[in-house]
Amino acid sequence: MQWIHKTIPCILGLCMVTSLVASQPLRCADVxxxxxxxxxxxxxxxxxxxxxxxxxxxxxxLNSIRLRLFHTPSERRDGLQDMLALAQxxxxxxxxxxxxxxxSDTWADPGAQQKPSVWSNLSDNHLTDSIYTYxxxxxxxxxxxxxxxxxxxxxxxxxxxxxxxTGRVGGSYDRPEQWSKLANLLQTAISAVRDASSADIMxxxxxxxxxxxxxxxxxxxxxxxxxxxxIGLSYYPFWHGPLHQFVNVVTHLEGQYSKPVMLIETAxxxxxxxxxxVHNIVGLPExxxxxYPATPDGQASFIRTLWEYVSSGICYWAPEYIATPxxxxxxxxxxxxxxxxxxxxxxxxxGGQMQTASETSPTLSTLRMFPNPARMGTxxxxxxxxxxxxxxMDIYNLxxxxxxxxxxxxxxxxxxxxSGLSVGSYWIRIPKMQPVxxxxxx
Length: 442
What we know:
Layout: E1 3-5, E2 20-22, E3 26-30, H1 34-39, E4 45-46, E5 49-50, H2 53-59, E6 64-69, H3 80-92, E7 96-101, H4 124-145, E8 151-154, E9 161-162, E10 167-168, H5 176-196, E11 200-205, H6 211-221, E12 230-234, H7 237-240, H8 243-257, E13 261-266, H9 296-306, E14 313-317, H10 345-350, E15 368-370, E16 380-389, E17 392-396, E18 402-407, E19 411-417, E20 424-429, E21 439-441
Parallel strand pairs: 3-6, 3-14, 6-7, 7-8, 8-11, 11-12, 12-13, 13-14
Antiparallel strand pairs: 1-2, 4-5, 9-10, 15-16, 16-19, 17-18, 17-20, 20-21
Helix pairs in contact: 3-4, 4-5
């Protein structure tokens, strides 16, 4: 993968756009449950025509998928043969593959990083040997199948370490010797990837809106000069925090470590309703960011806004996870398909396609403002529209909170009052239009 530096000037010290840009951003979906959902009766459609979900997503602009792998899962899902089968399906559609190694028999995340049962009693030396052999063999299986990964994650959300308690960090394990053990485990996995393929290597944590946590993790790990290529973040606003905090983390990590940051996990609700009797994880009004309603267009708008700050790639988690006749879903209102299985505008947004008719009015386009930044002492800025427009102009702060609304009076050009606004940066938006670049008051 080719990564190109792109220098973006800062306005009044606010660097709001990522400084590292991928030559071809990865527009990705983690579809690890697709085969199970299909077996459960899931039907996916585009324009009311049933089709392969992977093909639908590709037709909406996606160029890659992410697949997780458990070592020896107790259930059928996410074992080696399942992963290889999905990788082959993706490859047949010319989709790139990101491999997510959990190094566990089940879900690995900051709250649980259990060793595979067959490794539970191994000495540190034997554990290291097992990591190398397992990692090498898995990637070779993909290579021999003709479905090589372009990125390999050496662990999933390893903020608290991996392969507990050998590589555990944080809390009572936040000790130099534990960080050294974690670094050794990671470098062993990295060496196996390097020896088995030409894939880039990602280290993935979940601190997408926690600057202090991200600094703590990568600051400790940086002492060991690990040979990896990409920083991966999870960012779910309903768990992790407001959008501006995510922007701060991306900006800091890319500036500090000169590595591209990829948003490897994210999702946003398109509704707060439900379609089955399985409790939805997200469903309360407080789970929704101000300015991004839980609607199909609100979901798409959130994804498009993420692209303002992430240039290397975005991977949407479980866009296929709808409720089926035989399988319920706690994620159905976060998928990129609606309750009937029809693809949503969020897939357009993730794939970088033009906005759908439902997302934008054909008579509205980008706002133009002058001056921006505003001159000291001015009370207005000039706003130009492509044609006379009858709509409110909404002003949001960086927390996504609407703080002011003014009418355009069905004009093509008008003055926007900034009287009463404090020094800072603001979004300006007309309903059904995307936010424009930051409006700054020095």
